[in-house]
Design brief:
It is globular and about 40 Å long. The chain is mainly β and about 120 residues long.
Length: about 120
């Protein structure tokens, strides 16, 4: 099984930046794609960003393009989300997701993935 530990969340003013990290441990695979979903108060869970297992391809939600950057370190099996120009609408619990297959591109999680515990991001006006 795979365990995911997230860090880097917190509270910032609009326009500020945060960097989220998610480290995988346990029995992992080199072909794991990694990414992030988020859930804001009163809203459904939504896709944020993902990166292929090789790191050569990325996928971003339209709402974060140009502001967020996803990257990974396969030696550490860790994924990062650099969030710049944060807006109040970005306030949510952010969940790290890892798994094999092409869910990172299709955004379809029916194939099975592992979830992190979530980290709170709060952006104030």
């Amino acid at each position: 099984q795979v365990q995911l530990v997230e860090s880097g969340g917190g509270s910032v003013q609009a326009g500020g930046s945060l960097r989220l990290s998610c480290a995988a441990s346990g029995r992992t695979f080199s072909s794991l794609a990694m990414g992030w979903f988020r859930q804001a108060p009163g809203k459904e869970r939504e896709f944020v960003a993902a990166i292929s297992w090789s790191g050569s391809s990325t996928n971003y939600a339209d709402s974060v393009k140009g502001r967020f950057t996803i990257s990974r370190d396969n030696a550490k099996i860790t994924v990062y989300l650099q969030m710049n120009s944060l807006k109040p609408k970005d306030t949510a619990i952010y969940y790290c997701v890892v798994g094999r297959g092409t869910w990172w591109l299709s955004r379809d999680l029916s194939g099975g993935v592992y979830w992190g515990q979530g980290t709170q991001v709060t952006v104030s006006t």
